[in-house]
Amino acid sequence: MRVHVVSDVHGNSEDLEKAGDGADALICLGDLVLFLDYADHSRGIFPDLFGVENADRLVELRTARRFEEARALGNRLWEGLDRNAAIEAGIRRQYAELFAAFPTPTYATYGNVDMPSLWPEYAQSGTTVLDGERAEIGGLVFGFVGGGLRTPMRTPYEIDDETYAAKIAALGEVDVLCTHIPPDVPDLCYDTVARRFERGSAALLEAIHTVRPKYSLFGHVHQPLVRRMRIGATECVNVGHFASSGTPWTLEW
Question: Which part of the chain is the Calcineurin-like phosphoesterase domain (predicted)?
């Protein structure tokens, strides 16, 4: 059995169309939407609306962790515009293209920049969407939890720690834990380019210690200090920043 795993697709529909080649199934750990590309500030919903110069400034402020100034810049730009409608229109254009690129079968969960409310409109019959739920693939039980935890970034699908922990607990015994965010381990949460710690889940780390799955698979941290480590019986793997690599991570058994 061979499964390909991707995360942080961020608009890369071209490579997504090929991500399932040679695999029995594709797993997607979320972040389909591209709001702003930190490597190419001309790509994404934000520069489409406000231009590259404003995108440059926003990235500069966020990278410096000057979140209040970044928020103030955004508020000025959005003044007089229907923010929700404009963002939703951009996301819908991306979702139409990205969901059409998913092979059959695909098992997917949400990232922190996704809009779960729109997924039922675009997920086709070959795509199974799971959040706090399990699926059996090739004799192994996979548990899926999507979204991220609350941060100053205020991305669209951030939930409180208690709700996230309840979703992890609802999975029970699984062979493979599939989440968007990593367990709360500093080496797995630190982004070496953004030069900051992303939020990891303490509940996920506890489940790794107690449930002892074979694998914990995740994304979210685009350039992690450590991509892979063993915690007890569990191999913890950041499957990679698919938006830039275009290459899925492979799990075979």
Answer: 1-224
